[in-house]
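fwd from M.: "can u put these together and see what the complex looks like"

so here's what she sent:
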Amino acid sequence: MPILFWLRSPKTTRARYFDTSKGEKMKRTKNVLAMLLAIALVLCSCGGGNTADTGPIKIGVNYELSGAVASYGIDSVRGIQMAIDEINAAGGIKGRTVELVIYDNTSEPAEATSLAAKLMEQDNVVACLGPATSGSFKATIPSAQSNKVPVISASATADKEVTVDANGNVNEYVFRICFTDSFQGVTMANFSANTLNAQNAVIFMDSASDYAKGLAESYRATFEALGGNIVAEEAYVAGDTDFRAVLTKIKATNPEVMFIPGYYEEAGLIIAQAREQGIDIPILGADGFDSPTLADLAGKEALTDVFFSNHYSSLDESQSVQDFIAAFKAANNDVAPNAFEALGYDLGNFIADCVSRAATIDGEGVKNAIAETTNFVGVTGSFSIGADHNPVKAVVVIELNNGEQVGAQRVEVSQ
Amino acid sequence: MDVPRTVFTKRNLVWLAVCLSIYFLVFFLRSYGILGNYHEITIAQICINIMLAVSLNLIVGFTGQFSLGHAGFMSIGAYATSLALRSRPDTIGFLIGITIGSVLALVVGVIIGIPTLRLRGDYLGIATLGMAEIIRVVFLNLKITNGAAGLMGTFRAANWTWLYLLTVMAVLAINNFVNSSHGRACISIREDETASEAMGVNTTAYKIIAFAFGAFFAGAAGGLYSSYFYFIKPDLFGFLKSIDMLVIVVLGGLGSITGTIISAILLSLLTTILQDFSSVRMIVYSVILVIIMLFRPQGLMGTVEISHVIDKFARKDKEDANTVS
């Protein structure tokens, strides 16, 4: 510690670079005192919670309602709210209503950590839903583990260190109800080899995104294991707009399918330019393709023979999906639900189902009920929770023809 | 050990007592369960913000060098600590990481400071902004930092003791620096660079010292952040993070450590309280900033320190006593 004292040279008096009149000084002193008082008041005003067995069942909602990825959070919460409203209208769970405690984590992981602790310790929720993105969801894991309250995400698709930690141990209180990024790669590889009967595939990936890297790796591994060849692997960087040179190179390798792990902004342009150059093979992608902007960028003509994997399709003919779409449209000015809204709706129903099955309505009971889930039927498919706390779920592969979704099939692959 | 006689003065002992009583107050409130983990998170945010803002105040407030790159230094400390904790998840790993991170931030501060500190005002702001972006993009593309997906911590080494200890050390070191002859050299640069150069102050050297010193503590704050909040990714250390710190400094008063501490506490508490009103949160926060800036354009404290106020009172009492007798 001597260094801390050394820095102040011993014999100097304190520098004064201010001089104020007496009145001002008094005013400042008062201001300081007022501020200290305010701080003291704030620190004292920490409230306690209650754990009554008859009141509403509280479920925490910790989502990105503002900030960089606000649209994911807002859509998810819309879905969750719809599901919970339906449950409350039907009489709640075991005669108790479900109350959502909704907070905005501003798309900041540290804020998500703070809110998870707030929900669990101050609001005494039995489970926390969200956040939507993997990073913020990861930031809530420590709170879940230490408070023994489960956290569930409907859209945190990162492969690593979500439900399973870096050492390979399952995080006991962490669950998700969506498949992982790499699982989509596995599914699309199976789809290429088995459904499209392709032997030679080319991967054209976004090298700046981990999402795309994960997809490309799992696709390559699975496709090669199924006996196919990856004849070329090319990369672009998000923001590129001209892909013609690379596409010429790709065309020369005579692939039978092209897999584009990445987002719709570039994928739309790639598809347009590929078709322009006469590359008329099937083009595959993952849920990054799921946006109306894809058709705007690629043009309707070009979006033929394009397949992408997704969580959900509005073309699914099962009764529950069509009911959900009808109800959603009625409540939202005839706008069809997107994948986040569908996943949010499933998450709301899923947590209600788990709470109703829970032996005790608290974090521990709900956690056990979640882990024991088998064959939950939702609009994004029916699933069971596996030993690694990921759902065992089918991926929907959507076919585009002239820019329209013409077919959707569920592809079951062991995870 | 040869300790100067000025160490155990009444003033230092009083401050030591104040620091220790704050520590034990929070410590006992924690152990009796009055302050839960949720409150500790808020306290952690306060401590980290104090370290960041006080170190930035040294650069912006005392030396007068407009820096928009503080988040870059913070990220160096954060990544170093996170990586150290991943290979060694215990307190030793935390201390190694935070030390390496802070020293690395200091070295980067010197390397970047030498060319950029020739610039003044807005130009320096833009240059430091560019520097922080470069650091961010490096972390975005390195394999060891796991790119855009970020790093997940495995062990929470930072607790109230470490948070408080490091914050007090940072504030103490910067306060002592500012009140030393070196600190006054820095202040003279802020007041008038040409004049201070004419008086024989090596302005370049002092600007770099202040910059590197600030960077060092920003690195330490980053280390605390990554070990407390587990998860870090390059996006967290963007331009907006630097602006957040600058807001705290300007609000507290450019050139007042007390003001910076008060505004860091106030703003962190404000964001926590506003969590319950998510829809109007940003509006209320911004309105409060606008109001404070309208009524206190010099910041909450201007350039006044709490110790100056106490000194003035003490001296006045003495004078009164003298006139009576």
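replying to her w this: Residues 136 and 234 of chain B are 6 Å apart (CA to CA).
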